[in-house]
Amino acid sequence: MLNEADLDALLAGRHADPFARLGLHADDNGRLWVRALLPGAAEVALLDAGSKKHIVDLEQRRGGFFEAMVPRRKHRFDYRLAVRWAGGGEGVYADPYNFYPQLADEELKAFAEGRNFRPWLSLGAHVVQYGDVSGVRFAVWAPNARRVSVVGNFNNWDGRRHPMRLRHQAGVWEIFVPHATLGDLYKFEIVNGNGALLPLKADPYARRAQLRPETASIVAALPEPTPLPRQRERANRRESAISVYEVHAASWRRGVSGEFPTWDELAEHLPAYVADMGFTHLQLMPISEHPFDGSWGYQTLGMYAPSARFGPPEGFARFVKAVHDQGLGLLLDWVPAHFPMDAHGLAEFDGTRIYEYADPKEGFHRDWNTLIYNFGRTEVREFLVGSAIYWIERWGVDGLRVDAVASMLYRDYSRPAGEWIPNIRGGRENLEAISMLREMNEHVGEIEGAISVAEESTSFPGVSAPTYAGGLGFHYKWNMGWMNDTLRYMAEDPINRRWHHDKMTFGLIYAFSENFMLPISHDEVVHGKGSMLSKMPGDDWQKFANLRAYYGFMWGHPGKKLLFMGQEFAQRQEWDHAESLPWGLLEDDRHAGVQRLVRDLNKLYRDHTALHRLDCEQGGFEWISAHDAEHSIYAWVRRDGTGRMVIVVCNMTPVPREGYSLGVPDGVTAWREALNTDSAYYGGSNMGNGVAAAGLPVQAQPAHGRRLSITINLPPLATLFFVPI
């Protein structure tokens, strides 16, 4: 018979080792006893698992605790518990305390030592089968907890029912709950080291969660490894055309009543639209589970769970397939830089700061009122790196865009002097974060064709250099300097642009120091910054012309491309995450013209290797005219290294220039205009250079320091592309 001290501890949910007391155990005299803690049960009987024959009735002592000595049995055996509930109903159940430890010692040792970068195979909730018993194996890392129970709709959210087994070598708690199944709600009830009961915690490794404001995790199937799209490796190469359409899934196109679209609704329309627009990749802002809509997903808590806003995870699998069926690559925003402090989340998860840095000088972001992961802790690195691998391997996405990398790289990021802690060398770099990012990129790089893209806004060296060369190992880096400089230039009245000419040329000084992507992202059209159209100076005609000229400049400039949704048709107001894009604007031909331009720019970019093959190489670019500040004209040649060329010319004033002499490279007898952003087809004045088969003949007339030239008409506020005939 169980002693009163053990019984008191079990009933209070404070027993140090419930597996040593509950279930089937032999006493000092070799007699077998069976014990069960089943609050709410009126009667419990022991049955033989095979024959279902009654063996003995268990006696209820108090508080739902039942026990009985087992007659005529001397060895362990498989059994079931027949329960009649006081509230009505009855059933026959396998006993969770009759099952051996779930996780192998080597598995846990690898996790504790930082060698398990697929921790989601061990931790979280997994449906498993033992003989004829199906159930769910739950496992959670909470090394400083005194007790952890899994609670859910399968046990009436009662923490006394399923206290878990602690595997001391890893700080992991585990239990197999028979008869739990897919779709069950659950959380973890944790008692901290001081004996205090914490708020219920969602599972850090949950693969599905409730829709906010509810916060429970949901038992979900582990996605099967997804075959790599055949085109992925080639499509993501440096020499390939990469043009990315960035989307906030909740507001691209909402339902008729303003509700979130489902994954299937998005799959029906979004991939086909992106492909029709000529983009090569679709990038989704964070779709991992997050509690606050207004964070746009960047304050995520569900690093392994597609958001419930768009329906069950299975819908996301169908969406990924629809993207690939259109020949597109899919990139996901991934956020390892910070996490929110919601009580059900990672903050002080087991009563201590195991996921975040303990000192607020390291572990708190002032800018976002969020916490910072402890990048130096083994289990946290596995959690983060494992998440990156999970989305690529298990969901088949093509790559990750990593948010706020600069905030991870520097310990003094957005902190005044005296309010940050130097690294062990006395410097400002976060050596642990740097190491984690390199580790993540190395593992991503092992997956054929997968890529990572860094949003990094400083001059930190080697962001897109390989780790073996001392770099961070990203495949591409957002060129934030280019974006800021060029948008400042475009905001100037054209009459003043001569004084800011270098803002458009400065980026070429460092354009090939990284594998750059040119981003016009969501960050440029929020928080009072206005839309791209509203940034442009002048009257309405000039605003549209300026924007078209700028897009032409961007697509002709070295670097991969990224454009945020709505800007492809010149959205007038800045983006609102709570509203659908204003698709009705396309009834206005000026907006439709910008959309047609972006579609054609993408086609031109893909069709002409000179515009993309050497995007990241100095040999792919050559100035024709970089210093004509007086007329605000820029001209350059793009090359692919095999002799193919494209000339790009920009006139950033509203002054048309007829008969303009443009120096051209040797080896070509005539050039033709391939695209003109001033075409009437795009909403322009239709000044240009015709499409005659003979094109524009090369003349032995020097210009721009070259011995040959062509004579062109330069439309107002326009970018032109010329290709050899």
TrEMBL record:
What EC number(s) is this enzyme filed under? 2.4.1.18
Pathway entry: Glycan biosynthesis; glycogen biosynthesis
Q: Which residues form the signal peptide?
A: none
Which top EC class is given? transferase
Catalysed reaction(s) here are:
Transfers a segment of a (1->4)-alpha-D-glucan chain to a primary hydroxy group in a similar glucan chain
Report which superkingdom the organism of origin falls in.
Bacteria
Provide the Glycosyl hydrolase family 13 catalytic domain boundaries: 246-631
Glycosyltransferase is among the record's keywords? yes
Please name the SUPFAM superfamilies in this protein's record.
(Trans)glycosidases (SSF51445), E set domains (SSF81296), Glycosyl hydrolase domain (SSF51011)
Query: Which SMART domains does the record associate with it?
Result: Aamy
Catalytic residues (UniProt): D403, E455
HAMAP family according to UniProt: GlgB
Q: What is this protein called?
A: 1,4-alpha-glucan branching enzyme GlgB
Species of the source: Roseateles saccharophilus (Pseudomonas saccharophila)
